[in-house]
């Protein structure tokens, strides 16, 4: 059944400015600026005041109304990213061959060596806005930080998927680099 109108309000905290123009949302805060295009979804995004944004769908079905919450969550994640940021911690797990991870090109790329004793060197490029560093207080740990939650989580997924065990029993060979903690800074 179609609904006439559905909407959701998003509050903007102090120190953050949000600009909306033709479904392109730009969020600027103390940590930087993020921009995202929502033209693929037919809905209204209007700025009601300095501290409130409204996301509205007219004559939407069940699936179309579900897009309201999705777009609102994306905007809230952008606001959280420019105020606090996102930090993902990943741990190295190995039984016999110690995994060696090197950060190269000033944090633009990570190099994984000696995974399961293989000679093959895995290189993973960081997505824009993501910085990587070795943890100082934990032995086998790397820390990914950034403002955009999509880029930080996709980089963590790329690192984890590069160390999947193939042609062996995955119940026995649990080696790899796994996400251990998600922290909002």
Characterize the structure shown:
With about 180 residues, this protein is an alpha+beta fold. About 20% of the residues lie in helices and about 45% in strands. It has helices at about 60-85, 150-160; strands at about 5-10, 15-20, 25-30, 30-35, 45-50, 50-60, 85-95, 100-105, 110-115, 120-125, 130-135, 140-145, 175-185. The strands form four sheets. Strands 11-12-7-13 form a four-stranded antiparallel sheet, with helices on one face. The chain has a three-stranded antiparallel sheet with strand order 1-6-5, with helices on one face. A three-stranded antiparallel sheet has the order 2-3-4, with helices on one face. The chain is elongated, with a radius of gyration of 21 Å. The relative contact order is 0.17. The mean pLDDT is about 95.
Radius of gyration, CA atoms, in whole angstroms:
21 Å
Order of secondary-structure elements: EEEEEEHEEEEEEHE
**What is the terminal separation in angstroms?**
42 Å
Q: What is the 3D shape?
A: elongated
Give a count of the beta strands, DSSP E runs of length 2 or more. 13
Helix segment count? 2
Average pLDDT? 93
* Residue share in β-strands: 35-45%
Please mark out the parts with pLDDT under 50 across 5 or more consecutive residues, or reply none: none
Structural class: alpha+beta
Main sheet, how many strands, which sense, barrel?
A: 4 strands, antiparallel
In short:
This protein is α+β, with helices and mostly antiparallel strands and 185 residues long. The chain has helices at 62-83, 149-162; strands at 3-11, 17-21, 24-29, 32-37, 44-49, 52-60, 86-93, 100-104, 109-113, 122-125, 131-134, 141-146, 176-184.
């Amino acid at each position: 059944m179609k609904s006439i109108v559905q909407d959701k309000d998003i509050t903007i905290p102090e120190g953050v400015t949000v600009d909306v123009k033709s479904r392109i949302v730009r969020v600027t805060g103390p940590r930087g600026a993020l921009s995202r295009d929502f033209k693929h979804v037919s809905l209204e995004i209007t700025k009601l005041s300095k501290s409130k944004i409204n996301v509205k769908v007219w004559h939407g079905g069940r699936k179309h109304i579900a897009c309201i919450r999705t777009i609102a969550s994306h905007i809230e994640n952008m606001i959280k990213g420019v105020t606090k940021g996102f930090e993902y911690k990943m741990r190295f797990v190995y039984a016999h061959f110690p995994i060696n991870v090197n950060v190269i090109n000033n944090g633009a790329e990570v190099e994984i060596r000696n995974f399961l004793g293989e000679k093959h060197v895995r290189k993973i490029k960081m997505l824009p806005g993501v910085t990587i560093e070795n943890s100082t207080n934990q032995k086998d740990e790397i820390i990914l930080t950034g403002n955009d939650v999509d880029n930080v989580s996709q980089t963590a997924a790329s690192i984890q998927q590069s160390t999947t065990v193939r042609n062996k029993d995955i119940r026995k060979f649990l080696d790899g680099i796994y996400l251990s903690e998600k922290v909002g800074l």
